[in-house]
């Protein structure tokens, strides 16, 4: 008898969580896909392995023995794979896009409880980093990575307008100066057009001066230097707002539809340094 390895993996995951919903979340597939694989496995083996009673899952004796054997087997396989691909350098290498790295990660690194126990390397990338063990061990991205990776959404991106007092309250002789990060001709000033439309103040564009910045980090620095009002992710402006260097122009936030994700290879997720880093990031996000 030949069983589909994917079906066995899904069955073991359902057993471990005692939940189809939680297994679907870990494996990043739908509940219906899990139910389909469970039915396939029952057909291949010829016996009931799990029974659903209301919201509870009850595993038969045969099902429980099979799942426990699979857990051991998969752990052995994972250990073998980890031994073959783990970094020889011994440092935890974190690849992160520039805005999230400088705005969220780096300001919190002093709070990482294992900082003194590990060698940590942070690599900033303007856009998506190279997804390879040769590049990093942990990846922060703006899209989830599916093939071979475990991904978790950390937070959605909302833009806030920030500037100095001089820029937030210009005198009557001049209008506002808006700093845009949408600098390409096809979508120039799209961020500010959307934002001003959201707060019903599109007429402000008629008298406004415009400055362009290719990255959020540049826009935030320009705002801090009094160049104009910038639309940047809240996490990037948070510390400057607390320090008093910047102030928020309007309380309304502009959702961009983008989000930030933490990604690691499935085969390396249980490595101690990676696991502790993931847990710390997720706790920090939950605490705000």
Overall description:
The protein has 288 residues and is of the alpha/beta class. It folds into 3 domains: 81 residues, Arc Repressor Mutant, subunit A; 94 residues, D-Maltodextrin-Binding Protein, domain 2, CATH 3.40.190.10; 100 residues, 3-Layer(aba) Sandwich (D-Maltodextrin-Binding Protein, domain 2), CATH 3.40.190.10. The strands form 2 sheets. Strands 3, 4, 5, 6, 7, 8, 9, 10 and 11 form a 9-stranded mixed β-sheet that branches. The protein has a two-stranded antiparallel ribbon with strand order 1-2. Helix 1 packs across helix 2 and helix 1 packs across helix 4. The protein is elongated and about 80 Å long. It starts with a helix and ends with a helix.
Q: What is the helix/strand order?
A: HHHEEHEHEEEHEHEHEHEEH
Query: What is the arithmetic mean of pLDDT?
Result: 86
Overall CATH class of the largest domain: Alpha Beta
* Envelope shape: elongated
Helix content: 40-55%
> What is the fold named in CATH at topology level of the largest domain?
D-Maltodextrin-Binding Protein, domain 2
What is the correct CATH architecture of the largest domain?
A: 3-Layer(aba) Sandwich
- What percentage of amino acids are in beta strands? 15-25%
Compute the number of structural domains. Answer: 3
Number of continuous helical runs = 10
Give the number of DSSP strands. Answer: 11
Class derived from helix and strand content: alpha/beta
Distance between the amino and carboxyl termini: 51 Å
Whole-angstrom Rg: 24 Å
Under CATH, the homologous superfamily of the largest domain reads Periplasmic binding protein-like II
